[in-house]
Amino acid sequence: MRSTARFAALVALTLVLGGGAWAQAQDQPSVPAAEAITPHKLDLANQLIDASGAKDQMKNTFHALTGQITGNLGANQSAEDRSRMQVFMDALGDAFSKHFPEFQGAMARAYAETYSEQELSDILAFYKSPSGSALATKAPQLAQESLGGYFKLLPEIMRDAGEEVCAKTTCTAAQKAAFFGKTPPKP
Known about the structure:
Blueprint lengths: L1 H16 L2 H7 L12 H13 L2 H21 L4 H36 L2 H12 L1 H39 L4 H8 L7
């Protein structure tokens, strides 16, 4: 179970913080820009980030993930390891907050590269409507509930993946234990 929790932590942090592919993608737009990125387009993109709740959602998701990871890892660790993990998660949260303006700038640039000025204006108008506002307001709760469902399924996902790996390769008892934790493999 300890290995499952570590793997879950790694997956969750990778999803939140991104990996090398995300860093590489910052320099190359995935969709060619239809028009130049103007200060007005960047302003619209930043307004859209705020109106859509993306800024708050990213922060809330990050904090929910770190709390979930800390809780999952803490069950099988010593008090000293739990304390160290909490200090690390707090430091990670502080670093995330410190660098969030840079992240938002990159996100605004991606929006401005991907959408035309008219599309940004139209999407912004939607988020300023009652339905758009409801979407933005309810998105963090939806994300938290979805993430909770993911963590509940993770042991079964790990077991299924472990069964497939062990069916295709030779697994030692230690490797099987890492995949299956306390859950025995299916017969």
